[in-house]
Specification:
The complex is a heterotrimer of chains A (about 160), B (about 400) and C (about 100). Chain B has about 400 residues and is an all-alpha fold. Chain B is built from 13 helices and 2 strands. Chain B has a two-stranded antiparallel ribbon. In chain B, a hairpin with a 2-residue loop joins β1 and β2. In chain B, α9 runs antiparallel to α12. Chain C has a domain of about 60 residues. Chain C has 3 helices and no strands. Classes of the chains: A mainly alpha (about 160), B mainly alpha (about 400), C mainly alpha (about 100). Chains in contact: A-B, A-C, B-C.
Chain lengths: ~160, ~400, ~100
Amino acid sequence: MTWPFIIIALLTIASAVATMTLRNLVHCALAFTVTLAGLAALYLQLDAQFVGFAQILIYNGAVAILVVFAILLTRGSEPPQQAIFSSTWALGVGIAVVVFGVLSAMVLSSHALAPAGPAPAIASVREIGDQLMTKYILPLEVVGLLLTAALIGGVLIAMHETKTK
Amino acid sequence: MDGPVDQIFVTAKDWLVGLAPAPWQPLVSALISVAAIIAVFAGLFAITTVLERKGLGRIQNRYGPNRVGPYGILQPVADGLKALTKEDIVPRTADQVVHFLAPLVLVVPVFLALAVVPVGRNMVALDMDTGVLFFFAVGAATELSVFMAGWSSRNKYSLLGAMRAIAQMISYEVPLILSAVTVIMLVGSLSTVKIVEAQAGYTGWLPHWFVLTPWGLAGFVLFLIAGTAESNRSPFDLPEGESEIIAGYYIEYSGFKFALFFLGEYIGMFAVSGLAITLFLGGWHAPAPFLNWIPSYVWFFAKLMGLIALFIWVRGTLPRLRMDQLMNFAWKFMLPMALVNILAAGLWRFVPPGAVRWAICSATIVGPYALLGRALFQNKHWAKRTYRYAE
Amino acid sequence: MTPLSAYLLLSALLFAIGLAGALTRRNAIIVLIGIELMLNAANLNLIAFWRYSPNPQALTGVLFAIFSIGVAAAEAAVGLALIISIYRHYKSANVDQVQAMKG
């Protein structure tokens, strides 16, 4: 376990915990941004540069700002009056602990995980483009359609309803 | 020309790195690149502040600052001393941590963005396979600092300015990236070094820069307009216009933090100009083959100063755009034009070279431009302004 | 070289944290952030498995992650639009109070 991995992993976990436990919603959103940046750093550690930079561009540059806008539009920037955790929070945390326990038991007891593979071919952008245009053309078109539908749907849902007389 | 004067900085850096012990050499090399970028561009920032104030002054028929030093050229020294010694006032109800971090979140990504811009032959800090994507990714990360500054000040005007600034920046990011996509398409690579190399060569006296093609010229104009909006410069500086909402999202900042915001904004302008030069103006290549003996970095900085002069000229000349005019311009004009530009670039690639190619591509760009302009001017009518809230 | 199990444990932990947040917080936007965190943890899993796979030239993991990022962004946009629309009706973004269909 190299030192960069340990530092980035600790930062990501700390900011994820902060995201889920802070009282002020805007602080939660900013901690979420740090978590996403930490994840992008982990992708760069794993030699997936395109995904890492696309993660920063899409998540930090767009989704985080969208979340912040939604918090401000729903008056979330004022301190919350009631409790921030629901009344059944113990059950939720219990379920999460059980899920983590099962996953980690699976990972640690598995014999199929190779210790370290050979150095991979670097995922160059040219190859990603080639694959997107030949083997994965159908998912690409479907995702394009999905994004168009999400764009139109989002605008329609959040638009003001015109009162019909 | 690949002579010794051209490569003088590369040889100096290699010699300095050679002085360090072997396991430390990558770190020393990185540190020297970082120090060079910060020193050069911060110095350029100082010069630009004086040039801007003198230039704006002359456009507005007055002298600019001319007290400090001959013709006022030592003004940045006075400004720097003032910024460093001013009292750092933070409002008591402000969010202390976020208020402190906002200038840092602005300055660090814009300096990172300068790392992929090739300043001369073999003179780029980071030669990555995904250079242009890296530039846009860190450019997008600066928008969060705008929000952090505006929200943490707990000031209505500050928040309003921040919301406007973010809306403007995300709207203009789309034409910015789409006009860069045309260049990426035709070069076939996201690496800035390869994009500059693809613009080498001359036909007669004309260079093979992308700006000298129909889609390149349209793309360059779109990129510069979107870059002006991304850097919040006039005529798109409604979020920070001094006559609108005082200083917008950095009202509550004083002293050194304000200077950092100022620095971050200007360095952002340099970064966008640097990328425009890399993508469209041939990077560090000379404009004519007989001018090749001038070193490559001289050409890059000459082009950069030219673009900065263009930004200052536009700031002094055009009036500010209103928020709805600004958003309409981005979504209804620039985005369709950027998409049409991509089509024109695709046609340029597949039609064989000649006059036919020029005619087809120019018609593909000028036709929609005229039609779109005519259509957008027809729906202008006067009406009472209405406001909409979220509930 | 970091072993693959370290990455998998990290992604399982992030998934569990996102799940805990999505199940316990009252504000709908934080629930959405928890769901996004779970999606990101799954992306980390994909990239880690791609990197340590015997055939990394196939780029399957990278492309799957790219599509996942795109779809997650679309889902976040629609989810937040829904939350804003619900806020307009109930004047509150708490998931406990949207219970008009409760008997």
